[in-house]
Write a structure and sequence with these properties.
alpha/beta, six-stranded mixed beta sheet, D-Maltodextrin-Binding Protein, domain 2, 2 domains, five-stranded mixed beta sheet, 12 helices, 11 strands, 17% strand
């Protein structure tokens, strides 16, 4: 952000000032003018293109949410929003990029559960998810679903899974899109809450994990509803339960894990937006307002329904409280389960 100072001093005053006086006057102008210019910059925000960082590859729910929201927010804010995918290291590469950006509202990020989980998975994390980011808004939740092969006749409910695993501990497997992903955490929370012994099989992404699940190389997966739903509808996968506290509006007949018999179980894969810490509150408020208005449009509601996303929306303060609670919750679970990426 460039601040330009304009002096309106008349020639008579300039003629009477010595070199020392000119220097002092220049310093005074810098000190008094900068805040005014900064205030004008905040008031006129945005004045140029906004960069929206997606810390994962294109094609997933996170990417879809950012792109459809950016289209509608651009209209509201009067400036373009460019989505950039900076993937790698469980979202840490994208997060590091945002942390280093100027806190001027021109770099924002969409993030997921990793903001609450990564501090406990990576011992050398170079940022603090709570201290180094300014919350903007919760966006949506995209439930995970416990699925297995559709042609299995021995499993038709969550209770069937629990019964089998208890009868033969260590025999059954669950796949994930990688260590620390919400798909992995859903399985880890399932075994932790139910006192079950299952083998976790991590893959490099949801695609190969689903392929092996359908091929029978692994037994179960807590896949995202976004990627699981087409296979459920085509008859290749069987849905057993949803991980969220309440049922999904996309698959309303599918029971939750908790109501299926594992009381207290809940995993809500959430998505939210953040800016670098120090971003002016007035700018955060503008971004928050634009996001909430965008999520109320027919186009965004249509895309959300397609990918199985449940609208949340929040104030920056509510997101800050939610992140703190999620961080405390997952810190305890990760310590108890011994999950690690290193």
């Amino acid at each position: 952000m460039q601040i330009r100072l304009v002096s309106s001093f008349g020639g008579k005053l300039a003629a009477t000032l010595s070199k020392t006086g000119l220097a002092a006057a220049g310093l005074a102008l810098a000190l008094t003018g900068a805040p005014v210019a900064a205030q004008d910059s905040v008031a006129n925000y945005p004045e140029r293109t906004i960069s929206w960082i997606v810390p994962f590859p294109p094609g997933g729910a996170m990417d879809a949410i950012a792109r459809v929201l950016s289209e509608n927010m651009s209209k509201e804010l009067g400036q373009s929003i460019v989505v950039e995918n900076k993937s790698g290291a469980g979202g840490n590469i994208g997060a590091n990029h945002v942390v280093k950006a100027k806190p001027d509202g021109y770099t924002i990020m969409i993030a997921a559960n990793g903001m609450a989980v990564n501090p406990f998975l990576y011992s050398h994390l170079t940022y603090d998810p709570i201290k180094d980011f300014a919350p903007i808004s919760l966006l949506a939740a995209v439930p995970n679903i416990l699925v297995t092969q559709a042609d299995r006749t021995d499993v038709n409910s969550l209770q069937d899974v629990i019964r089998q695993v208890k009868e033969e501990p260590g025999k059954y497997t669950y796949a994930s899109a990688g260590v620390g992903t919400s798909i992995h955490l859903a399985g880890a929370l399932f075994t932790y809450t139910g006192g079950l012994d299952m083998l976790h099989v991590p893959y490099k992404g949801s695609g190969p994990a689903v392929a092996d699940l359908m091929g029978g190389q692994v037994d179960y997966m807590f896949d995202s509803i976004t990627s699981a739903k087409p296979h459920i509808e085509s008859g290749k996968l069987k849905a057993l339960a949803v991980t969220t506290k309440t049922r999904s509006s996309t698959l309303p007949d599918l029971p939750t894990v908790a109501e299926s018999g594992l009381e207290g179980y809940e995993l809500t894969p959430w998505f939210a937006t953040f800016a670098p810490a120090g971003t002016p509150p007035e700018i955060i408020a503008k971004l928050n307002s634009a996001m909430l208005k965008a999520m109320d449009t027919d186009r965004v509601k249509e895309i959300f329904a397609t990918i199985g996303a449940e609208y949340i929306g929040s104030s920056p303060e509510e997101l800050a409280s939610y992140l703190a609670a999620e961080t405390e919750k997952w810190g305890k679970i990760i310590e108890a389960t011994g999950i690690s990426v290193e």
